[in-house]
From TrEMBL, chain A:
Domain of life (superkingdom): Bacteria
Protein name per the record: PepSY domain-containing protein
InterPro entries: PepSY-ass_TM
Keywords tagged on the record: Membrane, Transmembrane, Transmembrane helix
TM annotation in the entry: 12-36, 173-195, 216-248, 379-400, 420-439, 459-477, 489-507, 519-541
Automatic annotation (TrEMBL), chain B:
Organism: Uliginosibacterium aquaticum
Superkingdom as given in the UniProt entry: Bacteria
Alphabetized PROSITE patterns for the sequence: PROKAR_LIPOPROTEIN
Transmembrane segments: 12-33, 53-71, 78-100
Record protein name field: Iron uptake protein
Record key words, sorted: Membrane, Transmembrane, Transmembrane helix
Automatic annotation (TrEMBL), chain C:
InterPro entries: DUF3325 (IPR021762)
Transmembrane segments: 48-65, 72-92
Keywords tagged on the record: Membrane, Transmembrane, Transmembrane helix
Name of this protein: DUF3325 family protein
Length: 566, 102, 105
């Protein structure tokens, strides 16, 4: 069916790229936003606009905050009946469950602190399992006070999971869809390089003055080629992060016996108790343990702050405290754990340096998850993500441009459909994201279920963009430009400007304030990016208008399409 | 297969290639990961190191067989290799595991 | 702020390196210099060498700023950003690159 190798690669590139490009577009765009997820959180939750804090004192701040936690009602309702052994007596009421595990997690970009607890089910069906009912909270580490929990962290709880799961939780379908898209990205890169006959000769080539198809292909090749290592490694490491758990969970299927045997051997080697002893024991000063951990890291020439803290088997003689270093100065993720005996504070185990394979794995996953402190690299990642978007978007438009005259002549709706989907997916996605920020500033802070509203409006706006693109698509069927591109560019510009203005009106944080008077770059950065997006969108809209005019004046001339969306 | 085939046959060929590339490639690379992990453990590597190494390779193998499913001349050979390979790899993984644990 | 200095230097070096590599190519030389590339074969060879050196020096500057693992990422991403900048400059304002070659004679 394919007459040549190159033809088979072209078929693969075109059709898989078209089918999964829409998903990839969302991965790249929301991935680029996720680079600054914490900063977007600050923008959307004005009461958390203060400087990032180190891990606070456990004894003074964290312990009282942990003591206030209660098992989550939803988790209790869902999991308690499954874990509790009814034969041993009635269920322990939710508020009386004893805590078994506490954890706290922060990074160098977090003013607020994420904490959580695992409550023990006292009479479990299977004592060998973990048997935890969970609780999660966010606190102000300066005081220990809880930050209201029904507010959505738009950056880290919406844009970030959007990037790897499309916020489609049912059966983890989102994660599998993104996984397939990631695989297709790898395949598309390889086939794209094979199809591209002049990889080096046209490395710097972009000819905007040539005919539309040519300059589109130039731009498609340029954005794909210059960031090729970025595209490849982000698709690959993204897959790798989920591979062991979702895509190839061999250790939970046919190799489970081997895996379980290894766990037993490892537990014996590390000497960290797997189970409670059943003997009550007090808790020594965790602050002293944190200080000791920092001293030991400094002695290994990796001085750093505590990033993750976990207490196991609370109140039991087998209890221990694990302290992990925040990975802000290197690519590999949090690590160098030191484990202390909870009752005495003595060191049980200091994790040795990693062997080659786990070290490579930590580097690869770390370069994707980016917990490091490096603002230049963060912005370069944003650029990489936007180049990915530009590459995919130009791919779509090229597909349409190549076929629309032919389809128009044959009366086929193909090009019109693809074009409408591309509009909804390129400009529509930006409208949904920026619109969500606008709504965040419009709805009152005290509104109950505000996060729910924001999510619904996000989907609503996106759907609206698709509908608009479909309704306005008639000109494509006559081989002209869909005016929806231009109109949605104007919508982006208006929404982005509105978001900046509303941020000023609702919080008093205008750019002069956040840049000069009281510098707060997290909010200033989001505002400036919104302004840049508004400027770019307005520019694109004006050029599109000019091209539409030109096409109307001289119907014989090739109509052209703008490609500045990123 | 060549150009001389009729249109429905071509479409069947494409459908088979897509099936080979996605579920077939997945089963094949799953088997590769399982078998490779068991083999490395048999050679003395710690389980998680072996698993991690094979996950990295497995993803590249998946991408590779995906491309091959479309590049190869014969669809039937692709299907045979991927299904056969998946069965063999998974069986080998189970046998190796049994040998290690006994 | 020694890191900031090395990073700035790395940015400039990779930008210059990519620009020189582009100018070493006949089509871009003609685009920028508005004269046949064949006449400047020697200069273009020199530019290719200078470009490669600048990119290598950019890598060195990255290594001075950060740990090696981090420096590798910064360098690769800087190459991407510089190549894009050079390509867009060539497309819209090629004359801007003329000065870069005057530096080398």
């Amino acid at each position: 069916m394919f007459t040549s190798f190159r033809q088979s690669m072209a078929w693969l590139h075109t059709w898989f790229g078209l089918a999964l490009g829409y998903v990839l577009m969302a991965c790249f765009f929301f991935g680029a936003l996720s680079v600054f997820d914490r900063e977007i959180d600050r923008w959307a939750l004005p009461e958390t606009r203060f400087a990032p804090q180190p891990m606070p004192s456990f004894d003074k701040v964290l312990l009282p905050a942990f003591a206030r936690l209660e098992a989550d009602p939803a988790d209790y309702a869902l999991n308690m009946p499954a874990l509790h052994d009814a034969a041993k007596g009635p269920q322990t009421p939710r508020q009386e469950l004893p805590p078994d595990e506490y954890w706290a997690y922060t990074t160098h970009r977090d003013p607020v602190l994420a904490i959580g607890a695992g409550f023990r089910v006292p009479q479990p069906k299977d004592p060998g399992l973990e048997n935890h009912i969970h609780a999660n909270a966010t606190i102000d580490p300066r005081s220990g006070a809880a930050v209201p929990s029904d507010q959505l962290k738009i950056g880290s709880q919406w844009f970030y999971p959007m990037h790897y799961s499309l916020n489609w939780q049912w059966q983890n379908m989102g994660i599998f869809t993104v996984g397939l898209a990631g695989l297709v990205m790898l395949v598309a890169l390889v086939s794209g390089v094979i199809m591209h006959r002049k990889f080096f000769r046209e490395f710097f080539t972009f000819r905007p003055q040539k005919q539309t198809q040519r300059s589109l292909l130039d731009l498609h090749n340029l954005t794909g080629v210059v960031a090729l290592p970025f595209h490849f490694f982000f698709a690959f490491t993204g897959l790798l992060i989920f591979a062991g758990f979702y895509y190839f969970p061999v250790s939970q299927f046919q190799l489970k016996p081997l895996h379980d045997q290894h766990e037993i051997i490892e537990a014996r080697e590390t000497g960290l108790p797997h189970q409670r002893a059943g003997i009550p024991a007090p808790l020594a000063s965790v602050d002293a343990m944190m200080a000791e951990a920092k001293r030991r890291w400094a002695a290994r020439d990796m001085a750093g702050e505590v990033g993750f803290l976990q207490l196991h088997h609370l109140g039991d003689a087998n209890g221990y405290v694990s302290i992990y270093r925040a990975g802000s100065d290197r690519v590999a993720l949090v690590g160098e754990a030191i484990h202390f005996k909870a009752s005495s504070g003595e060191v049980l185990r200091e994790e040795p340096p990693r062997a080659a394979v786990p070290a490579l794995n930590e580097f690869l996953t770390g370069l994707h998850l980016q917990h490091f402190e490096h603002w230049l690299l963060r912005w370069l990642y944003v650029l990489g993500g936007l180049l990915g978007c530009a590459c995919i978007a130009t791919g779509f438009i090229f597909f349409v441009e190549k076929r629309k005259r032919q389809h128009a002549a044959a009366g086929s709706p193909g090009a019109r459909v693809v074009d409408a989907l591309a509009v909804g997916c390129v400009t529509g996605m930006v409208i949904a994201a920026v619109g969500m920020l606008v709504v965040n500033r419009l709805l009152p802070a005290g509104l109950s279920g505000k996060g729910e509203w924001e999510q619904q409006i996000f989907w609503g706006l996106w759907l609206l963009a698709f509908v608009h693109a479909a309704l306005r698509g008639a000109p494509v069927a006559q081989a002209r430009i869909n005016p929806a591109w231009r109109e949605q560019c104007w919508a982006i510009a208006a929404l982005a400007l509105a978001a900046v203005l509303l941020n000023w009106l609702s919080t008093g944080d205008h750019l002069l304030q956040t840049i000069i008077l009281e510098p707060y770059w997290a909010v200033a950065g989001v505002d400036l990016s919104l302004l840049a997006a508004a400027g770019l969108a307005a520019l694109a809209a004006r050029r599109l208008a000019r091209r539409e005019q030109r096409a109307l004046l001289s119907p014989s001339a090739a109509p052209e399409t703008e490609v500045v969306h990123a | 297969m060549t150009r001389t085939h009729s249109r429905p046959l071509q479409q069947l060929g494409i459908a088979l290639r897509i099936l080979a590339a996605i579920p077939g490639g997945w089963a094949f690379s799953w088997g590769f990961v399982a078998c490779g992990t068991a083999a490395l453990v048999a050679l003395g590597a710690p389980f998680h190191d072996a698993e991690t190494a094979l996950l990295m390779l497995g993803l590249l193998v998946f991408a590779g067989v995906f491309l091959w499913s479309f590049a190869a001349r014969s669809v039937l050979r692709v299907c045979a290799v991927l299904v056969g390979g998946a069965l063999l790899f998974n069986a080998a993984a189970l046998l190796l595991q049994r040998a290690i644990l006994s | 702020m020694p890191e900031a200095f090395w990073l700035l230097l790395a940015c400039l070096l990779s930008l210059a390196g990519m620009a020189w590599l582009a100018l070493a190519m006949a089509v871009h030389w003609e685009q920028v210099m508005l004269q046949p590339a064949a006449r400047a074969a020697g200069v273009r060879l020199l530019l290719r060498g200078a470009g490669a050196c600048a990119l290598a020096l950019a890598a060195a500057a990255c290594l001075l700023a950060d740990r090696p693992s981090m420096a590798l990422l910064v360098w690769l991403m800087l190459l991407a950003a510089s190549a894009l900048t050079v390509a867009l400059t060539l497309a819209w304002r090629p004359a801007l690159l003329r000065g870069l070659c005057a530096l080398r004679g």
